[in-house]
Amino acid sequence: MGEGGHHGGFASSENMVKALLVLKQVPVPDDGSLEGLTDFQGGTLAKDDPLITFEASVNLVQIPQAEALLHADCSGKEVTCEISRYFLQARPEATVETAAWFITNVQVSGGGPGLSMVMKTLGDAENGAVLHPTLKVPLSPQGTVRTEVEFQVTTQTPSLNLLLGSSASLHCGFSVAPGLDITAVEWRLQHKGSGHLVYRWTTGQGQAKREGATLEPEQLLMAGDASLALPSLTLKDEGAYVCQITTSLYRAQQIIQLDVQASPKVQLSLANGALPPTLICSVTGYYPLDVTVTWIREGLGGAPAPVSGASFSSLRQNAAGTYSISSSLRAEPGSAGATYTCQVTHVSLEEPLRANTWVALPEQRTAFGVLFASSLFLLALLFLGLQRRQATSPRPAKTPRHSG
Hints:
It is a single chain. Helix content is 10%, strand content 39%. By secondary structure, the protein is mainly beta. The protein has 3 domains: 136 residues, Sandwich (Immunoglobulin-like); 105 residues, Immunoglobulin-like (Sandwich), CATH 2.60.40; 98 residues, Sandwich (Immunoglobulin-like), CATH 2.60.40. Strands 1, 2, 3, 4, 5, 6 and 9 form a 7-stranded mixed sheet that branches. Strands 7-16-15-10-11-12 form a 6-stranded mixed sheet, with no helix packed on it. Strands 17, 18, 21, 22 and 23 form a 5-stranded antiparallel sheet that branches. A hairpin with a 3-residue loop joins strand 15 and strand 16. The N terminus and C terminus are likely disordered.
């Protein structure tokens, strides 16, 4: 938890202290797995418990990912949580001076949901409540900081890997307490140190900066769905998308990392006229850059074995941004020939791609060529001999005709 904090952001690591966040009144469907769970009791905190304990009531907003948070430990996943002070741009006139706000960012590991919540403190120091020595906010009789969640922004897909040319749906949902209005939704793309606006929605109208980008229909948007749809992905769509939701009082965001991939195509060929035979494995149209090409040799009756000594062409990149490369290998088929396999591994593939061919012994191929040429030579001699014999053979005399 950061003692300093700032508007909608995180504290630096230099002023981080240990804290405990307790979400209360979270509606979770009882599927029979809640029997072993007990409610948090503030009076049971031990001396070695965190310095600051936040109790956050969420009865004003919805937490659709509550099950993922509750069962994270059982699923072998970790939940990270950072809490920072949140300063309003404009303080409501009806707010007492002792009220304070915090923003909590929760992330479940392994591609789990991400959640950002704005919490407002409850309690009044003028009624005799003890103030926390560092935060200067009222403490409950159990020594906890009682808060209420008034705004949350979440995503079910913090990271996506999609193929080039496919469509993407970047999930971004939110929930607000009664009395708060959504004033703007903004999607921005950050990639390699630069950023630009993708889509912006204000009450009643939307503006797309990326061709084809759309939000959900407005009735769904007002119900808490600000997901962004992107058709026909190109490599320019890759990067970190920031979904920022602005209300009449708060602002929070989620970040979705979109990686675009293109699967390689593999073709194996034999170089014409090359002795010893040379195999060429062409790998084309892949993205991102890293690709692994492995050669495997399998002789008759033998086991497959990796082959070293391959060489690679220079890397090529086409107009669409995908890459191509070729790997060449001099084959040694042995006395009985062998099968050579080119195996390609890439992040876009669930399993490696393979292309194979059978390579004959060069001597066998040469002997066959000599035998074939000799056969043609003998046939030519036989044909010429027959022609000469026909030319030198005596022709029968013609019988003269007499006219009557």
